[in-house]
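Thread: calcium ion complex, take 2
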Amino acid sequence: MRVLLVEDEPHIGSAVQEHVRAAGHAVDWVRQIGAADDAVRSVPYDALLLDLHLPDGRGLDFLRTLRRRGDTLAVVILTARDQVSDRIDGLKAGADDYLVKPFDLDELNARLQAVARRTQGKAIPTISLGPVELEPEAHVARLQGAVVELTAREWAVLDVLLRRPTFTVSKEAIEAALYAFGQEIESNTIEVYISRIRRKLGRDFIRTIRGLGYRLHD
Ligand code: CA
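Output below.
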């Protein structure tokens, strides 16, 4: 799996990166929240290891931002022993698990695997984007409060985008979701679905990122 590590202490960062890599995972290590935000927008990570005290802000604020955007990325908080309240706040803010420093690196790998597995089966939360509100589990969509009917295939396309709303999803990833319906994929199939969804939920609801794919958020 692909892991993003956000940690500003060099010795902890390098030890964690080395150990998680040794377990067969790809680990990108950044030291600040700004770089972490850029990274989660461009790479489909499976898990985030998040220190709470970072040079450019609080890890918890970053976590809240992620969850507010509807991002379901698995998050494990790395916290110091004397900050029990941080741990509670972290779980409230949407962390999936936490580890107290100094932690055992094998324990870290085990927890990481467990949260990533759980997240894959997790329900996609209700999300509001401008005038659009979506309840993905119930397949209910509203535009300015009025219910809009979407087909099962349109929901399949939306589900791919909603799993990681800040991430640009490639056309190929959306095609893969439609294969499940036995859908024949022509060169313009995805454009057709995207334009149908836009007709129902508004032009600005799905952004086209030229050459890369589609995305819900700015
Ligand atoms: Ca720190």
